[in-house]
Amino acid sequence: MNKKVVLIGAPIETGTHISGCRMGPDAFRCAKLVETLQSLGLEVEDWGNQAPKPIATQTHANGAIHHLAETIGWTQTLFEVAVKAMHSGALPVFIGGDHSMAMGTVSGISESAAQAGQEQFVLWLDAHPDYHGLSTTMSGNLHGTPAAYFTGRSGFTPYFQEVANPIKPENICMLGLRSVDQAERDALMHDGVLAYDMRYIDEHGISQPLQSFLQKVKQANGRLHLSFDVDFLEPDIAPAVGTTVPGGATFREAHLIMEILADSNLVTSVDLVELNPFLDERGKTASLMVDFIASLFGRRVLDRVTTASHGPMMGYAMVS
Question: Catalytic residue at 190?
């Protein structure tokens, strides 16, 4: 994995109706994200918090939609900074901020991949698929629309800029789904997105679908973007999110995902989204997310050493 990391703050909360996400980037910094990555031997550069481009007031036929102009402005800013970050040769970690930020970050990294002649893939860890169009969202919260946008689904123009290099739906793997609206379900099935709900994970485990997807990325010599929403996790361990859905991934499942990703050496960019420090318990969720990111970048609880005489050393504790 790339040894140079750039952190890019996206204090965006226009995609939700709950205040607090704008504090997410600074909460990650307070939880020692920079110091943790540096302790792993990484060169870390913090590009600070970004700001949206000013956009004139916009209205849509769907009267539920709110903060449309502001979200358009954020999408333009994050698209540009994502392209810049990828061209810098570093691995960008976008710290948010609600999940509408992925409209800009993912479309930007996809643009960069296309310019390099590579396929872009996305691993989406989230309780929600965020696959609504502007006309189907009933809440009007635009954090429920980014995946539909960056796959090039219709209805986003002329409001948002057209995605020149959309992500192919079959290049997306969604893990941990447990809150999917009917319109999203129909669209996911129509488009062929790889979507695994928590029942599938309960029955088959987290490793099998993930390893299968990573093999697909590797065979295509593709780039992999990780978009990690806090609500992917069980709310008991990660309460700092405004869209909690019971039955999420456990600490062990999430940690396993990070270690498998680290072993794969395929991740080229990361989103960390929906952290709401206003809802946290003494920084519990921010610290947990930093621990997971440390695992993504190679931190191990116990190295798996193999010797000729004793075979693999496993992580077992001796109990007398």
Answer: no
Residues of the chain with pLDDT under 70: 301-320
pLDDT the model gives residue 301: 66
> Would you call 99 a catalytic residue per the annotation?
yes
Query: In total, how many domains does the chain have?
Result: 1
- The whole-number pLDDT of residue 302 equals 59
Is 143 catalytic? The answer is yes
165 within a domain of the structure (yes/no)? yes
Candidates 70, 98, 191, 274; catalytic one: 274
> pLDDT digits over 169-192, tens only?
999 999 999 999 999 999 999 999
CATH of the domain at 185: 3.40.800.10
Catalytically annotated residue among 13, 229, 234, 271: 229
- Domain residue limits at 168: 4-312
Whether the CB-CB separation of 170 and 217 falls below 8 Å is answered with no
- Name the amino acid, one letter, at 142: L
Task: Tell me, yes or no, if 17 is annotated catalytic.
Answer: no
β-strand partners of 6: 45, 92
- What lies within 8 Å, CB to CB, of 69 at 6+ separation is 55, 56, 57, 58
CB atoms within 10 A of CB 166: 19
Is 70 assigned a catalytic role? no
231 classed as catalytic: yes
